[in-house]
Amino acid sequence: MYNFKRAFSFILLFCTFALIWFFPKLVYRRELREEVPVFIVAYKNRFWLVSDSGNLLGTATLSDLARRAFVSQVFVSELKVNEESLNAMNKIRDVLSNPFVTEVKLEDKCAILLKGIVLYFNEWNDLVTHGSRLEMAIKTMEPKSEYFLSSSGLFYKLRGDENEKN
After folding, report:
1. What tens digit of pLDDT does each residue of 56-105 get?
2. Phi, psi at residue 126, to the nearest 5°?
3. Of 125, 166, 126, nearest to 146 (Cα)?
4. CB neighbour class for 144 (10 Å; exposed up to 12, middle 13-18, buried from 19)
5. Distance from C-alpha of 97 to C-alpha of 101, rounded to nearest angstrom
6. Cα 94 from Cα 57, distance rounded (Å)
7. pTM for the structure as a whole
8. Can you tell me the distance from the alpha carbon of 141 to that of 146, in angstroms, rounded to the nearest whole number?
């Protein structure tokens, strides 16, 4: 005699194994990689977390801002930082974690330090190379003043003309 229950369970078991074996091959699977925030960017009146590849991941919290400096004057299109800005941010990655730096402006090539000090420089390498000297230099710098960092590592105070009012 024909055992219907046994045949049904065999077919069910066979189909289950077939689905387990073939289903992953038939369905398009996209590997999702969790992106880690590396930079903080000021864009459209908000602070955004940015991945190493330049994607905007979400808004930054106050604790994120307390841990590292943010970058402003960045060009963003379609929720991605452009290549030129991303290259500049990668060059100054170590400077952004310096506790004396609060903001870096890409277009102006300047860094805003603690006490409201603005530090201008010519090349990104100048800031990276001499960033370790900021701890000693900031002790003697005047609050809310402007300085220039030379390629040799010297800090020059910039002075306005006599007609300029503070």
Report:
1. 998 998 998 888 999 999 999 888 999 999 999 999 999 999 999 999 99
2. -60, -45
3. 166
4. exposed
5. 8
6. 21
7. 0.73
8. 9
- For the chain, the C-alpha Rg in angstroms (whole number) is 27
DSSP per residue over 15-48, as a string?
A: HHHHHHHHHHHHS--PPP-PPPEEEEEEETTEEE
SS3 4: helix
Cα–Cα dist 145/142, whole Å: 6
pLDDT tens-digit map of 94-137:
999 999 999 999 999 999 999 999 999 999 999 999 988 898 99
Look up residue 72 and give its amino acid. S
